[in-house]
Amino acid sequence: MSGLRSTFAVFKHRDYRLFWIGGVISNIGRWFQTIAVPIVIFDLTGSAGWVGLAGFAQIAPMAVMGPLGGAIADRYPRRKVLMVTQSIQALTAGAMMTMWFSGVRAPGAYVAMSVAVGLAAGLNLPAWQAIVSDLLPRDKMLEGITLNSAQFNASRMIGPALGGLAIAAWGPGWAFFVNLVTYAAVLIALARMDHRSEPGQPDGRMRPIQEFMAAARYAAGVRGIRTAIFTVSMVAFFGLSMQTLAVTVAEDVFDRGESGFGLMLSFVGLGAVLTAPLLASIAPRIRRSRIQEVALIQYASGYLLIAFAPWFGLALVGSFIVGSAHLMSASTLNTAIQLQVDEAVRAKVLAVYLSVLTLSNPIGQLLLGQLIDATDPRTAYAIAGSAFIVIALWLAFRGHLEGLDSDQGGYEPASAAEVHPSTPIPPKGYQPSPNPVSSPSDK
What we know:
Elements: H1 2-8, H2 14-45, H3 48-75, H4 78-101, H5 107-132, H6 141-170, H7 172-192, H8 208-220, H9 223-244, H10 246-253, H11 257-282, H12 288-308, H13 312-339, H14 346-374, H15 377-397
């Protein structure tokens, strides 16, 4: 019980409390838009290719903008950077809302807006990560990182369910409206923070690509950071991709449709949320390498259970295990990479970390999605689960995971925010409704 009290003691820090509350509200709203975009595009086109294009159009610019976002976050006041990037993201939500209510039904327009969303998110993420290190003392960073991850997963547990109900009742325009309104929570939190410190000003003009490559070389030279980046690439390729592709399990395997897919996502979030306080209370007494090893094995067991589940209820149990594994993996990798990075390159190294993550996810979706089309969802999940066993054994026997245990960094770490997976690809053979999604404004 004392461990749990220590975990939640981070909320005594006012700025962190404001940031956390603003983040969870905004992330719930973002899930409304995350599920609205694929529903709109699929109903307008009936094409899984269009939906996949929309997902790629959003996530690829995030990786492209990573170098610039990292350079900006290390050069300018991060609170002000976030005020700008969050405002831009709110404007994109407002633009989508306006497009829908004004009768725009061209799928290309929503794909183009997805590009704008990705560009803004790519600029936002490094600053979002870097500012959190100023909100908590160093000895509370693991608890802060874990609870930060928990708020994302809590929003994943709540947002899709509420968003689905809102779209079914009132149409996607209102989902875009909810996303727009919830950005106010983060903007108000940023405005009310006492924190006003600014990063050091690098000499000379900004060179994002050169600075990004220098940060990549720096990361490659630190054992723990190198291991964390490799591990997160595997987690993004097999883990996040298969979470997104769970729609094929819900529809093709268990014939549960969109509601079944939403339920599987909710159980992923539930597993993460329930694991967060337990992990934060026991993690200071356990080596990060051991926690990461357990997380990889949990990923394997969760996906293998989904692959061979005879009933949908067991697939939900597998989703719960995957959510727990995701929370454990994300928290330990974030903690390790940030305790070992120097302040001078903090945001840029985190931009490298995010770029690897955001590129691995869509590549995994494309390849594993093709595997599902060529075989079936159960085979793909069995392969993904087996891959996690191989990855865990290789990292453990080669001694790479031990690099995560070092605390060699001499500066305050940053807390990495979660990254939303790209929009889900509809299941093979799924048919859209006879009429495009409508809202009261269409009548």
